[in-house]
Write a structure and sequence with these properties.
Elements: H1 2-23, E1 27-31, E2 36-40, H2 41-74
Antiparallel strand pairs: 1-2
Helix pairs in contact: 1-2
Length: 75
Amino acid sequence: MKIYLTLFVLIVLFSIAFIFGSQNAEPIMLNYLIAKTEITVANAVSIFMGIGFIMGLLFALLWKFVRAVQAKKRI
């Protein structure tokens, strides 16, 4: 049941990001540390949504790994 709820939340979040991005097609100037570029708002939302998803997934996996190692040390 937990997996279905997680998938539902992910689908809703990606749908919101897609709708927001498709309604905002004007270009923006993106300045970062070493360069700057002009991309559309839709591309920026997609990039940052993907980066956030990957970072969250890596953090969750790291948290699960640390908890497993701690549980194994207690045995």
